[in-house]
């Protein structure tokens, strides 16, 4: 969500805000480094930048990134392997929800709700070719993983699909999609943790009515491996990332049930424009005219609808900040679409 402008070498002497930042799953640490570098230049800095990262390998990679790019601010960074019991400040969830496990379902020919499970196909022809759907590897020779339709879907999944169908969604036979049954507990945990502050979620997704459109009848599950995107979750098992688009309506509903207020919802492009990205680019270009081409290319990547501008959505949830008006939602708040 940040532009790739040249980063200042922070001195670590910018005033502190008295608030903390908590990033959920910091990936390579690039976003944390950019945020800290920008806040060191413009102020105020958070007292602490907390990173929830259960993977020791990723945590070490994040430390290396921050050590290289903002060494003077590394002492403000702290790593957690679980949510703190209490937190006041800003929580950032950038591409977190789309990577959470989902339950897949399909509507059967008789309208029944089927759960798409993982099965093992041991039926191969004489050439060793697979005879079912998909081409994933199994545990041994002559086996492979396949989709298996179960007539005994979990009660939670059935309830969630019935809720969609009560709104006229996911009704036609053969319709297949995904539901994140962990979204509500995840949001509830954040709501219980947050005393006063903001939760900012940036991710792929749609409002529910768009997420489950009739023409989106094969769902949104995507696999990312070796810089390629495809739809086979059984290829390169353990070596690829699986994602599914977020139902932002479900997120807003879960936030309300967790005692959180909806601060706004919009596209990434609208959010960044509301935050003044055009002025920041102009200011950076004036300081370094040679960087203008790179800045413009980065801005296009972040703002154009065909790239990240509309594919990424931003939703804010607050607690104890009734009068807060976020500039990121000032250009076009799309909360009415949720």
Give a structural overview.
- With 338 residues, the protein is α/β, with parallel strands linked by helices.
- The protein folds into two domains: 175 residues, 3-Layer(aba) Sandwich (Rossmann fold); 75 residues, no CATH class.
- 29% of the residues lie in helices and 26% in strands.
- Strands 1, 2, 3, 4, 9, 13, 14 and 15 form an eight-stranded mixed beta sheet that branches.
- Helix 2 links the parallel strand 2 and strand 3.
- The radius of gyration is 22 Å and the shape is globular.
- The N terminus is likely disordered.
- Pfam families: Methyltransf_28.
Question: Which helices and strands appear, and what pairs or packs with what?
Answer:
Blueprint: E1 20-24, H1 30-42, E2 48-52, H2 56-69, E3 77-80, E4 87-94, E5 103-107, E6 113-121, E7 144-150, H3 155-166, E8 176-179, H4 183-193, E9 194-206, H5 208-211, E10 222-225, E11 228-230, E12 241-243, E13 246-247, H6 248-257, E14 261-267, H7 268-274, H8 277-287, H9 292-303, H10 305-309, E15 312-319
Parallel strand pairs: 1-2, 1-4, 2-3, 4-9, 9-13
Antiparallel strand pairs: 5-6, 5-8, 6-7, 9-15, 10-11, 10-12, 14-15
């Amino acid at each position: 969500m940040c532009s790739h402008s040249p980063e200042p070498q922070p001195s670590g002497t910018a005033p502190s805000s008295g608030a903390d930042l908590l990033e959920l799953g910091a990936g390579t640490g690039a976003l944390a480094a950019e945020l800290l570098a920008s806040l060191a230049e413009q102020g105020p800095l958070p007292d602490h930048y907390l990173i929830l990262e259960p993977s020791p390998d990723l945590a070490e990679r994040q430390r290396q990134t921050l050590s290289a790019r903002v060494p003077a601010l590394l002492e403000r960074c702290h790593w957690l392997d679980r949510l703190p019991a209490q937190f006041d400040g800003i929580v950032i969830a950038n591409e977190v929800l789309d990577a959470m496990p989902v339950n897949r379902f399909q509507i059967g020919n008789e309208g029944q709700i089927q759960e798409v499970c993982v099965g093992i196909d041991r039926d191969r022809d004489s050439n060793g070719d697979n005879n079912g759907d998909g081409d994933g590897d199994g545990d041994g020779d002559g086996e492979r993983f396949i989709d298996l339709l179960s007539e005994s879907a979990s009660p939670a999944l059935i309830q969630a699909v019935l809720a969609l169908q009560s709104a006229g969604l996911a009704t036609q036979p053969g319709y297949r999609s995904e539901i994140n049954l962990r979204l509500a507990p995840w949001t509830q945990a954040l709501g219980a943790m947050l005393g006063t502050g903001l939760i900012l979620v940036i991710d792929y997704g749609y409002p529910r009515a768009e997420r489950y459109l009739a023409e989106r009848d094969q769902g949104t599950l995507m696999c990312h491996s070796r810089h390629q995107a495809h739809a086979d979750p059984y290829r390169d098992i353990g070596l690829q990332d699986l994602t599914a688009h977020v139902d932002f309506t479900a997120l807003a509903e879960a936030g309300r049930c967790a005692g959180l207020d909806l601060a706004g919802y919009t596209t990434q492009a609208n959010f960044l424009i509301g935050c003044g990205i055009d002025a920041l680019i102009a200011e950076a270009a004036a300081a370094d005219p040679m960087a203008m081409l790179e800045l413009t290319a980065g801005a296009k990547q972040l703002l154009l609808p065909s790239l990240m501008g509309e594919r990424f959505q931003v939703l804010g949830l607050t607690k104890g900040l009734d009068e807060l008006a976020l500039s990121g939602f000032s250009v076009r708040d799309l909360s009415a679409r949720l």
